[in-house]
Amino acid sequence: MRAILARCTLASLLFLVDQTAMATGVETASTQAIHTGERLTYDISWLNVLAGTAVMEVLPDGAGSRARLVTTAQSRPAISKFFPVDNRVESEFDLSAQLPQHMVFRRREGKNKEDIEYTFNHREGTVTAVRHGASETLPIPAGTQDLISCLYYVRNQLPMTPGASLMLNVYHDKRNRQVQVRVENIETVEGLWGKAETAQVVVIMPFKGLFINKGDIRVWFTTDERRIPVRMKAKVIIGSIVADLVDGFSSKTSP
């Protein structure tokens, strides 16, 4: 039983970071919180046990209006002995339009290996998905985001004031999924990097996906112009998974 729970938890490491927000916005107040050069590192714990590490980076991709959003998640050495996790998601993101162009998900969990690729054509309103060697083109609503870009979109669009909200659409696993994101309150959060005023944002999850959540997900964004997610938390079958920022709060970024 313990091994099964650990498997579900570790398989969720990446999705805690990626599914904290998913993108047609309402009540938006656009800003530019995202800049190339940002690198955020998180310790991920379950039942107060350090289980893994996740890193979120914004890298240049050779075009001034685009960036590569890269998120990786790896299990700790002690955990890897019985269930290794080494996941990587990379999304090409148009900074001007705030839309994903192409996403590759390299999943390595235990003995399971899978590569998923999405190519977005927003002008035609379609996405082409390649999985297990099969290709399929499906319709998507305007403003659709992927598993990575959704978090950055929310950082740019959601006003960090209580009551502000967004209705978002993300494409994943052959489905368009709508999620509501809402600011609940303002509170001070303390970490290895110090203290910061944050907006506690609840992500209302109307479904159970690859993330084995048992309720809504909460994210704490700083209320300054950077809107850094310093903490993420979600309930699972037993206990909660928590991702706490441990490095990158003072990262130098370039506009």
In short:
With 255 residues, the chain is mainly β. The protein is built from 4 helices and 14 strands.
Please describe what this structure looks like.
There is one protein chain. The model is unreliable at 1-14, 20-28 and 207-213 (pLDDT under 50). The protein has 255 residues and is mainly beta. It has helices at 2-11, 13-18, 77-80, 149-157; strands spanning 39-46, 49-60, 66-75, 86-94, 99-109, 112-121, 126-131, 134-139, 165-172, 175-191, 194-204, 217-222, 229-235, 240-247. The chain is globular and about 45 Å long. The protein has four helices and 14 strands. The protein has a 14-stranded antiparallel β-sheet. The protein has one domain.
